[in-house]
Automatic annotation (TrEMBL):
Protein's UniProt keywords contain Ubl conjugation: no
One GO MF term attached to the UniProt entry: ATP binding
Family: Belongs to the helicase family. RecG subfamily.
Chemical reaction(s) catalysed: Couples ATP hydrolysis with the unwinding of duplex DNA by translocating in the 3'-5' direction; ATP + H2O = ADP + phosphate + H(+)
Protein name as catalogued: ATP-dependent DNA helicase RecG
Pfam families per record: DEAD, Helicase_C
E.C. no: 5.6.2.4
Function summary: Plays a critical role in recombination and DNA repair. Helps process Holliday junction intermediates to mature products by catalyzing branch migration. Has replication fork regression activity, unwinds stalled or blocked replication forks to make a HJ that can be resolved. Has a DNA unwinding activity characteristic of a DNA helicase with 3'-5' polarity.
Keyword Isomerase: yes
InterPro entries xref list: ATP-dep_DNA_helicase_RecG, DEAD/DEAH_box_helicase_dom, Helicase_ATP-bd, Helicase_C-like, NA-bd_OB-fold, P-loop_NTPase, RecG/Mfd
Record lineage: Bacteria, Bacillati, Actinomycetota, Actinomycetes, Mycobacteriales
Keywords: ATP-binding, DNA damage, DNA recombination, DNA repair, DNA-binding, Helicase, Hydrolase, Isomerase, Nucleotide-binding
Renumbered residue ranges of the record's region Disordered: 524-550
Length: 753
């Protein structure tokens, strides 16, 4: 008998085990049984890799009835006979060709049921298999069990496994199909699985009894067998459900360990003080905090005061005022003698944060300077484009502890940056960073401290993603915008349909500028050499002209053209990623100061840029952007007291998928609704960056898009168990389920552009 941890070479013999390890890294009984079927043949389906119909070059395996047999002769001399066999009544027609006709013609009679395996070729619209492997399962003339040598050998091998006669292993209503390799076919794997299951000891259930009963689950032992061998679809579905449930619980238990476990007592406690930077900052804010901000702040201050490090995500619509909340949190740490680091995805944004935080802090940020307040600190800025000398100076300010608040881009992550007493890490626009980057920064703390972590995002996270990808973070949400904000109207301009609408857009910009407002014109590319990737690549209903011929607007030529034509006479600024730090800075400063009327730019302004006087945005070739990206872009306007207008231009027709996507963005300002739509629109692989090998998060049967209910159930269940077992130490079965996820890096959500 065998257990899950036994090695396969021991159970199956080295010869059978070796290819499993070589092709799939399968080493143990457990590894093999977790190589779940990818599909099941029900009756006679021809299966290709996905659900799509088979294509030229696909390797397929299926069971089918022979509906016609004809002998033909080759043209060449001497002519040779070959056999063409029709398989089923299919559209397009499916045939198999055999050249050793003398042998096969006696075997392959009309009415025989055969298992076939081979590579698809297309010929005049029909699908063909040339010399496929076959095994006769049923035969009108007594030929069952015969077929290609390899498959006959297979069926003979099956006989030894578990007492089932060889053919019966295949002669069933349903057959599992496994991810296979050319040298290791689905059938080989199937037979290994049968052989292993025949000797497998009963499997212990990783879930507590009461859980299995409460959720009416199939037992682990039954499920592990049925997922491979059940013939009955209902039983099989129960098995799949059970294993999905396991995955979900395993993942949630791993996340619970991160939330409740390890780090528990190593956080820098920063109790609230009556006087200090935080208190003074509160009293000098130029506006009243919204109720939402106050609520979130309350939660955050409590957590910052505790010795358990905070791990929190603050999500809120663009413009909801997350920055000031983060700043007040950082001030609390500064008052307790700690330093804080704020990581921003772009230089423009880091700059802006430094400027606005210094502004809000005023004398509180002027330690050691004339006019500095009593408990003042300093705000340091570190970006990649600074000169070496400037960087050195800033690093000195950081390592000496003079700078209480350190703001920067990726430059902050470098080894040379050392903190005297890091107590809190803030990551702005979280989706632009990977987990490793966040952890790198956190690791700069000294003295065994785990800094508090606050990550902020304006890209709303759909609930299943929040519970999984970000499941180790607690989540706060700012839904309300500060009072007095004017709504943004969004319109789609289908410029191929109505050219004049685009002209009207330029007029609108002029009108706004005349009223003293400012505008953004956004395009996908910098110059002709810049190949922006289209979000719709592979979108089958996209017009043909997309391929190669169609080029997205580039800002360099656009800037030239607008200056002499459509927007002649207005003061234009140019902004894109290839400018130097100084150039970017100069343009942003001019735009902020109102010295530039229209900023012609790429998506460098996508995140965080805050110029409340800007009220119009025209996005050219808007179909080049994803839903969340457009929502972010649009968030650059509507930040002040004036009504704003966002115009999304596309050359695609309204009926295209991209056209509909743009209409959806125009229809709502609700970032959460758009995030759900975004998630539904894209294939899971795109959203989650999960790699082909099923690594990534390590999920096999659980889909974050489809199994929200199971995910939520598992989350609640784990919380319930933790409440009873706060040290998480009495559930070895759950630990086993979780182990798989602890090893894997988490997948990243959304674009990493
Ligand atoms: P986001 O959440 O998108 O990062 P910001 O933090 O940049 O938004 O805030 C957007 C603007 O709103 C900033 O100019 C900020 O000073 C302002 N703001 C923040 N909170 C309030 C408030 N309670 N009342 C008025 N304006 C506010
Ligand atoms: Mg922001």
């Amino acid at each position: 008998m065998a257990g899950l941890d036994d090695r396969l070479d021991y159970v199956l013999g080295a010869k059978a085990a070796e290819p499993l390890e070589q092709h799939f890294g399968i080493r143990t009984v457990n590894d093999l049984l977790r190589h779940y079927p990818r599909k099941y043949i029900q009756g006679s389906t021809v299966l290709s890799e996905d659900d799509r119909p088979p294509q030229e070059g696909d390797h397929v395996t299926f069971v089918e009835t022979i509906t016609g047999v004809s002998a033909r002769w080759t043209n060449r001399k001497p002519a040779k006979m070959y056999l063409v066999v029709n398989l089923g009544y299919r559209e397009p027609k499916l045939t198999a060709t055999f050249f050793n006709a003398n042998y096969t013609k006696n075997l392959l009679a009309e009415g025989a049921k055969v298992m076939i395996s081979g590579e698809i070729k297309k010929f005049r619209g029909d699908l063909q298999l040339t010399h496929p492997h076959f095994l006769i399962l049923e035969s009108p003339n007594g030929q069952e069990g015969k077929g290609s040598r390899a498959m006959v050998r297979l069926s003979a091998a099956a006989k030894d496994a578990d007492g089932v006669t060889g053919l019966d292993a295949f002669r069933r209503d349903s057959l599992p199909i496994y991810s296979a390799a050319a040298k290791l076919q689905s059938w080989d794997i199937y037979l290994c699985v049968r052989q292993v299951l025949a000797v497998l000891d009963p499997v212990e259930d990783p879930l507590p009894d009461w859980v299995v009963r409460r959720f009416d689950l199939m037992s682990e032992d039954e499920a592990l067998r049925a997922i491979h061998l059940a013939e009955n679809a209902i039983e099989r579905d129960r098995a799949i459900h059970r294993i999905r449930f396991d995955e979900s619980v395993g993942l949630q238990w791993a996340l619970a360990r991160r939330r409740y476990g390890e780090l528990s007592e190593s956080g820098p406690a920063a109790p609230l003080k009556d006087s200090g930077v935080r208190a003074d900052l509160l009293s000098r804010l130029p506006f009243q905090l919204t109720d939402g901000q106050l609520e979130v702040l309350d939660v955050i201050s409590t957590e910052l005061a505790a010795t358990r490090p905070m791990s929190r995500m603050l999500q809120g619509e663009v413009g909801s005022g997350k920055t000031v909340v983060a700043l007040l949190g950082m001030a609390q740490l500064v008052d307790a003698g700690y330093q804080c680091a704020l990581l921003a995805p772009t230089e423009v944004l880091a700059e802006q944060h430094a400027r606005s935080m210094r502004n809000m802090l005023g004398p509180l940020a002027m330690a050691g300077q004339l006019g500095g307040a009593e408990h003042a600190t300093r705000v340091a800025l570190l970006t990649g484009s600074m000169t070496a000398a400037q960087k050195r100076e800033v690093r000195e300010e950081i390592s000496s502890g003079q700078a209480g608040i350190v703001i920067g881009t990726h430059a902050l992550l470098q080894d040379a940056v050392e903190f005297a007493q890091l107590g809190m890490v803030v990551v702005d626009e979280q989706h632009r960073f990977g987990v490793e980057q966040r952890d790198t920064l956190r690791a700069k703390a000294t003295g065994g401290i785990s800094p508090h972590l606050l990550v902020m995002t304006a890209t709303p996270i759909p609930r299943t993603i929040a519970l999984t990808v970000y499941g180790d973070l607690a989540i706060s949400t700012l839904r309300e915008l500060p009072k007095g904000r004017q709504p943004i109207t969004t319109k789609v301009i289908f410029s191929k349909v109505k050219r004049s609408w685009l002209d009207r857009a330029w007029e609108r910009i002029r009108e706004e500028v005349e009223r003293g407002r400012q505008a953004y014109v956004v395009a996908p590319r910098i110059d002709e050499d810049d190949d922006a990737r289209h979000p719709d690549d592979g979108d089958t209903d996209a017009p043909k002209d997309r391929e190669g011929a169609r080029q997205a607007t580039a800002v360099l030529p656009l800037y030239e053209r607008l200056g002499i034509r459509e927007l002649r006479g207005l003061r234009l600024g140019l902004m894109h990623g290839k400018l130097s730090g100084e150039e970017k800075d100069a343009v942003m400063t001019a735009f902020r100061a109102g010295e530039v009327d229209v900023l012609v730019c790429t998506t460098v302004i996508e995140v965080g840029v805050d110029v409340p006087n800007a009220t119009v945005m025209v996005v050219l070739d808007a179909d080049w952007f994803g839903i969340s990206q457009l929502h972010q872009l649009r968030g650059r306007i509507g930040r002040g007291e004036h009504a704003s207008l966002c115009l999304l231009e596309t050359k695609l027709p309204p009926t295209s998928r991209a056209g509909r996507r743009l209409e959806a963005v125009a229809d709502t300002l609700d970032g959460f609704a758009l995030a759900d739509l975004d998630l539904a629109e894209r294939r899971e692989g795109d959203v989650l960056g999960r790699d082909q090998s099923g690594q990534g998060m390590g999920l096999r049967l659980l889909s974050l898009l489809e199994h929200r209910e199971i995910i939520e159930t598992a989350r609640l269940l784990c919380d319930e168990i933790v409440a009873d077992d706060p040290t998480l130490s009495n559930h070895p079965g759950m630990d086993r389920l979780a182990a798989h996820f602890v090893e894997h890096e988490r997948i990243e959500y959304l674009d990493k552009s």
